[in-house]
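User: Before I run my own analysis I want an independent prediction to cross-check against. Here's the chain; please return only the C-alpha coordinates and, at the end, one sentence I can use as a sanity check.
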Amino acid sequence: MLILASASPRRHELLTQAGLTFSAEAANLSEDLLPNEAAAAYVQRLAEEKAQAVWNAHRFTDGSEDPLVVLGADTCVVVDGHILGKPTDSADARRMLELLSGRTHAVLTGIAAITAKKTVRDLDITHVTFNVITDAEIGRYISSGEPLDKAGAYAIQGYAARWIPRIEGCYFNVVGLPIARTMALLAQAESDTPVVEKV
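Assistant: C-alpha coordinates:
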Protein backbone atom coordinates (compact mmCIF):
# COMPACT_ATOMS: atom_id res chain seq x y z
CA MET A 1 0.00 0.00 0.00
CA LEU A 2 1.55 3.26 -1.16
CA ILE A 3 0.69 6.70 0.23
CA LEU A 4 2.03 9.90 -1.31
CA ALA A 5 2.66 12.40 1.52
CA SER A 6 1.75 15.39 -0.63
CA ALA A 7 -1.28 17.34 -1.82
CA SER A 8 0.56 18.40 -5.01
CA PRO A 9 -1.56 17.70 -8.09
CA ARG A 10 1.63 17.61 -10.19
CA ARG A 11 3.16 14.82 -8.09
CA HIS A 12 -0.17 12.97 -8.13
CA GLU A 13 -0.27 13.18 -11.95
CA LEU A 14 3.33 12.00 -12.32
CA LEU A 15 2.87 8.95 -10.09
CA THR A 16 -0.36 8.09 -11.92
CA GLN A 17 1.45 8.49 -15.25
CA ALA A 18 4.11 6.06 -13.99
CA GLY A 19 1.38 3.44 -13.46
CA LEU A 20 1.32 3.41 -9.66
CA THR A 21 -1.74 2.85 -7.50
CA PHE A 22 -1.66 5.01 -4.39
CA SER A 23 -3.55 7.36 -2.12
CA ALA A 24 -2.41 10.88 -1.24
CA GLU A 25 -2.43 12.75 2.04
CA ALA A 26 -0.70 16.03 2.84
CA ALA A 27 1.56 16.21 5.89
CA ASN A 28 0.85 19.42 7.76
CA LEU A 29 4.17 20.52 9.17
CA SER A 30 6.43 23.55 9.25
CA GLU A 31 8.47 24.06 6.09
CA ASP A 32 10.69 26.74 7.62
CA LEU A 33 14.38 26.65 6.81
CA LEU A 34 16.67 25.81 9.74
CA PRO A 35 19.54 28.21 10.53
CA ASN A 36 22.42 27.74 8.04
CA GLU A 37 20.63 24.82 6.38
CA ALA A 38 21.83 24.06 2.84
CA ALA A 39 19.25 23.56 0.08
CA ALA A 40 20.02 19.86 -0.43
CA ALA A 41 19.72 19.15 3.30
CA TYR A 42 16.52 21.22 3.48
CA VAL A 43 14.59 19.36 0.76
CA GLN A 44 15.80 15.96 1.96
CA ARG A 45 14.82 16.74 5.57
CA LEU A 46 11.35 17.95 4.56
CA ALA A 47 10.76 14.95 2.29
CA GLU A 48 11.60 12.61 5.15
CA GLU A 49 9.59 14.57 7.74
CA LYS A 50 6.52 14.58 5.48
CA ALA A 51 6.82 10.82 4.86
CA GLN A 52 7.37 10.14 8.58
CA ALA A 53 4.34 12.20 9.63
CA VAL A 54 2.02 10.33 7.25
CA TRP A 55 3.63 6.98 8.14
CA ASN A 56 2.96 7.65 11.84
CA ALA A 57 -0.69 8.46 11.09
CA HIS A 58 -1.20 5.21 9.13
CA ARG A 59 1.22 2.76 10.78
CA PHE A 60 -1.71 0.64 12.04
CA THR A 61 -2.54 -0.27 8.41
CA ASP A 62 0.88 -1.84 7.83
CA GLY A 63 0.67 -5.59 7.25
CA SER A 64 2.88 -8.41 6.03
CA GLU A 65 0.58 -9.10 3.05
CA ASP A 66 0.36 -5.44 2.00
CA PRO A 67 3.23 -3.48 3.59
CA LEU A 68 2.75 0.27 4.01
CA VAL A 69 5.12 2.49 2.02
CA VAL A 70 4.96 6.28 2.38
CA LEU A 71 6.64 8.55 -0.17
CA GLY A 72 7.57 12.12 0.71
CA ALA A 73 9.02 14.80 -1.58
CA ASP A 74 10.00 18.43 -1.42
CA THR A 75 11.20 20.73 -4.20
CA CYS A 76 12.96 24.08 -4.10
CA VAL A 77 14.60 26.44 -6.56
CA VAL A 78 18.09 27.79 -5.82
CA VAL A 79 19.66 30.89 -7.35
CA ASP A 80 22.73 32.74 -6.00
CA GLY A 81 22.68 30.39 -3.02
CA HIS A 82 19.17 31.59 -2.09
CA ILE A 83 16.37 29.06 -1.69
CA LEU A 84 13.12 30.03 -3.41
CA GLY A 85 10.09 28.19 -2.10
CA LYS A 86 6.49 29.08 -2.92
CA PRO A 87 5.92 32.85 -3.10
CA THR A 88 4.02 34.44 -0.22
CA ASP A 89 2.20 36.90 -2.51
CA SER A 90 2.33 38.58 -5.94
CA ALA A 91 5.22 40.87 -4.98
CA ASP A 92 7.26 37.87 -3.81
CA ALA A 93 6.48 36.05 -7.08
CA ARG A 94 7.72 39.08 -9.03
CA ARG A 95 10.93 39.19 -6.95
CA MET A 96 11.58 35.52 -7.72
CA LEU A 97 10.90 35.79 -11.45
CA GLU A 98 13.15 38.86 -11.71
CA LEU A 99 15.91 36.84 -10.01
CA LEU A 100 15.48 33.95 -12.48
CA SER A 101 15.22 36.12 -15.62
CA GLY A 102 18.08 35.60 -18.09
CA ARG A 103 19.92 33.12 -15.87
CA THR A 104 20.43 29.46 -15.03
CA HIS A 105 19.22 28.14 -11.68
CA ALA A 106 19.02 24.77 -9.93
CA VAL A 107 15.89 22.83 -9.01
CA LEU A 108 16.38 20.36 -6.16
CA THR A 109 13.92 17.66 -5.14
CA GLY A 110 14.44 15.53 -2.07
CA ILE A 111 12.56 12.23 -1.95
CA ALA A 112 12.16 9.77 0.91
CA ALA A 113 10.34 6.45 1.25
CA ILE A 114 9.51 4.92 4.63
CA THR A 115 8.47 1.35 5.48
CA ALA A 116 8.32 -0.48 8.79
CA LYS A 117 11.85 -1.74 8.18
CA LYS A 118 13.72 1.23 6.75
CA THR A 119 13.92 4.76 5.45
CA VAL A 120 15.59 5.48 2.11
CA ARG A 121 16.22 8.89 0.61
CA ASP A 122 17.61 10.49 -2.54
CA LEU A 123 18.12 13.88 -4.18
CA ASP A 124 17.76 15.03 -7.77
CA ILE A 125 19.13 18.28 -9.25
CA THR A 126 18.18 19.85 -12.59
CA HIS A 127 19.63 23.07 -14.03
CA VAL A 128 17.11 25.30 -15.79
CA THR A 129 17.97 28.25 -18.05
CA PHE A 130 15.56 31.16 -18.45
CA ASN A 131 15.49 33.73 -21.23
CA VAL A 132 15.17 37.37 -20.19
CA ILE A 133 11.58 38.08 -19.14
CA THR A 134 10.15 41.58 -19.56
CA ASP A 135 8.31 43.36 -16.75
CA ALA A 136 5.09 43.19 -18.76
CA GLU A 137 5.46 39.42 -19.22
CA ILE A 138 6.08 38.93 -15.52
CA GLY A 139 2.97 40.98 -14.74
CA ARG A 140 0.82 38.93 -17.13
CA TYR A 141 2.15 35.69 -15.71
CA ILE A 142 1.47 36.70 -12.11
CA SER A 143 -2.06 37.84 -12.98
CA SER A 144 -2.75 34.32 -14.34
CA GLY A 145 -2.30 32.97 -10.80
CA GLU A 146 -0.07 30.11 -12.01
CA PRO A 147 3.11 31.16 -10.13
CA LEU A 148 1.54 31.55 -6.71
CA ASP A 149 1.66 27.91 -5.52
CA LYS A 150 4.88 26.87 -7.28
CA ALA A 151 8.43 26.72 -5.91
CA GLY A 152 10.39 29.51 -7.61
CA ALA A 153 7.10 31.06 -8.82
CA TYR A 154 6.87 29.16 -12.11
CA ALA A 155 5.59 25.94 -13.67
CA ILE A 156 7.81 24.47 -16.40
CA GLN A 157 4.80 22.53 -17.71
CA GLY A 158 2.71 25.72 -17.91
CA TYR A 159 2.98 29.20 -19.41
CA ALA A 160 6.59 29.61 -18.22
CA ALA A 161 7.71 26.97 -20.75
CA ARG A 162 7.97 29.81 -23.29
CA TRP A 163 10.97 31.25 -21.39
CA ILE A 164 12.96 28.02 -20.93
CA PRO A 165 15.25 27.20 -23.87
CA ARG A 166 17.31 24.57 -22.06
CA ILE A 167 17.41 22.26 -19.06
CA GLU A 168 20.15 19.90 -17.90
CA GLY A 169 18.80 16.93 -15.98
CA CYS A 170 15.38 15.43 -15.34
CA TYR A 171 12.41 17.42 -16.65
CA PHE A 172 10.02 15.67 -14.25
CA ASN A 173 12.16 16.82 -11.32
CA VAL A 174 11.30 20.42 -12.24
CA VAL A 175 7.60 19.51 -12.36
CA GLY A 176 7.97 18.19 -8.80
CA LEU A 177 9.02 14.53 -8.80
CA PRO A 178 11.96 12.83 -10.57
CA ILE A 179 10.04 9.75 -11.66
CA ALA A 180 12.92 7.41 -12.60
CA ARG A 181 14.70 8.10 -9.29
CA THR A 182 11.42 7.75 -7.41
CA MET A 183 10.73 4.33 -8.94
CA ALA A 184 14.25 3.20 -8.01
CA LEU A 185 13.79 4.55 -4.47
CA LEU A 186 10.47 2.72 -4.02
CA ALA A 187 12.06 -0.51 -5.25
CA GLN A 188 14.86 -0.02 -2.74
CA ALA A 189 12.36 0.66 0.06
CA GLU A 190 10.43 -2.51 -0.72
CA SER A 191 13.50 -4.75 -1.13
CA ASP A 192 15.09 -6.79 1.66
CA THR A 193 18.50 -5.23 1.03
CA PRO A 194 19.75 -3.18 3.98
CA VAL A 195 20.26 0.54 3.47
CA VAL A 196 23.83 1.68 2.82
CA GLU A 197 24.16 5.39 3.50
CA LYS A 198 26.05 7.40 0.86
CA VAL A 199 29.09 9.19 2.25
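Sanity check: Residues 59 and 99 are 43 Å apart (CA to CA).
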